[in-house]
Amino acid sequence: MQKLIIQGGFPLEGQISISGAKNAALPILCAALLTRESLVVDNVPDLQDITTMQSLLQQMGVNVTTPASSRIELCASHLTHLVAPYEMVKTMRAAILVLGPLLARAGEANISLPGGCAIGLRPVDQHIKGLQAMGADIAIKHGYIQAVAKKLRGARIVFDIVTVTGTENLMMAATLAEGITTLENAAREPEIVDLANCLRKMGAKIHGAGTDIITIEGVPVLHGGEYNVMPDRIETGTFLVAATATGGDIRLLNTSSNLLDAVLDKLTEAGAHIESAENWIHLHMTKKPQSINLRTAPYPAFPTDMQAQFMSLNCIADGTAIITETIFENRLMHVQELKRMNADIEVEGNAAIIHGIPKLDGAHVMATDLRASASLVIAGLTAQGETLIDRIYHLDRGYENIEGKLSALGARIRRTTSS
Ligand code: UD1
């Protein structure tokens, strides 16, 4: 199993380019299922989750090619196998995103239930409820969502909770439904706007993406097109936190500060100086960070996908902070690992109280999920001595060439396959 070894104590300095957003690329690849014509997607990050999605689409009969790096061409002229098997869904919950498009285009889908997952229960009831309101017959049998619909009909759907992939699934399904669909209490994440922009390029009629009411007027067919995926705001935020924690000075290219206002506000509160223009962000940190309280919530509030990274920053900040996780019920697993590095953290329910200490101690730790892994990398970069991070396959699901990018910024980090 692969591991990362980090020698801590070196500030990040220099510039790197941010990759395309995983969470925008995944639904956009699924949008290819909605048309017989070819969809060319650019700025796709090279990640394990993207490879898994490509394999899933391929086994459904989609012709997938990669004509150049970061570019994927998909053609779903003939769908042969309307199934997402357990083996694929269990490694990547976003596989649920094929449900809406398959049902809308082919009238049938058989998708494994994602089941439990490390960071929480993560049910898909809102996806199912919405598709049922659009006229789908759905049964859960043998751990699979078996869905059939001759023709989906537009409907008014009010989500009980804000769900990102739920909003994306129903928005995709509604593009080919008969009549008008309104999605209320919809998620407002920038990745939803990116997907809507791609769908619009393919001929879909969508209004209101980025607000909590999205209206979709169904059309008989969608056509192919070309689309460039937005920058990854979570990768951007992760590097910014790493630079803040190490007292660094970095410039991130091909990204935008508009995507992460809540994160930049918190980094400024921690003491970082930030400047930005249309497609770059520069961060400079000259002092010890101040501790910062935060509470995760749906966009535009503070993202749950940045919570773990800020936990590591608070570990070495001046003062005491409280971090409250409101989206997922079990997303504080990195606390145990950070404590192995001497962090002073108490957990009470869904909140962590972090008392800053001067320095973390390098230690042998284990990655437990994608963003928890990123927090351990940040902790390792600031720590005294060597940190060895085990099970980094979690990290490879969501960060493109992380050790390459960190090395380019002066970090002492290497990958090893030793047991
Ligand atoms: C997406 C992101 C993930 C991010 C999360 C929250 C992708 C591929 N993944 O995940 O990185 O952490 O948004 O910003 O975009 N829920 C239900 N019923 C449902 C659906 C969700 O109860 O039918 C609950 C979940 O258990 C969770 C909350 O709603 O507690 C939010 O989940 P959701 O927004 O759906 O997360 P994902 O779309 O899976």
Any descriptors?
four-stranded mixed β-sheet, 31% helix, alpha/beta, 419 residues, binds uridine-diphosphate-N-acetylglucosamine, elongated
Which ligands does the model contain, each kind named once?
uridine-diphosphate-N-acetylglucosamine
Across the major sheet, the strand order is 22-23-1-24
End-to-end separation in angstroms reads 6 Å
Strand fraction: 25-35%
Helical/strand content category = alpha/beta
What is the 3D form? elongated
Low-confidence stretches: none
Number of strands: 24
Evaluate the radius of gyration: 21 Å
Assembly category:
single chain
Number of continuous helical runs: 14
Major sheet description: 4 strands, mixed
Q: What is the average of the pLDDT values?
A: 95
Please estimate the helix content. 25-40%
If you had to describe this structure to a student in words, what would you say it looks like?
- 31% of the residues lie in helices and 26% in strands.
- It is built from 14 helices and 24 strands.
- The chain has helices at residues 22-31, 48-59, 86-89, 99-106, 125-133, 164-175, 190-201, 233-246, 261-270, 307-315, 334-340, 370-382, 393-396, 402-408, and strands at 3-7, 13-17, 38-42, 63-68, 71-75, 83-84, 108-112, 137-141, 144-148, 156-158, 180-184, 205-207, 213-217, 225-228, 249-253, 273-277, 280-284, 294-295, 320-324, 344-348, 351-355, 364-366, 386-390, 412-416.
- The longest helix has 14 residues, at 233-246.
- The protein is elongated.
- Bound molecules: uridine-diphosphate-N-acetylglucosamine.
- The site of uridine-diphosphate-N-acetylglucosamine has 22 residues, from helix 1, helix 5 and helix 6.
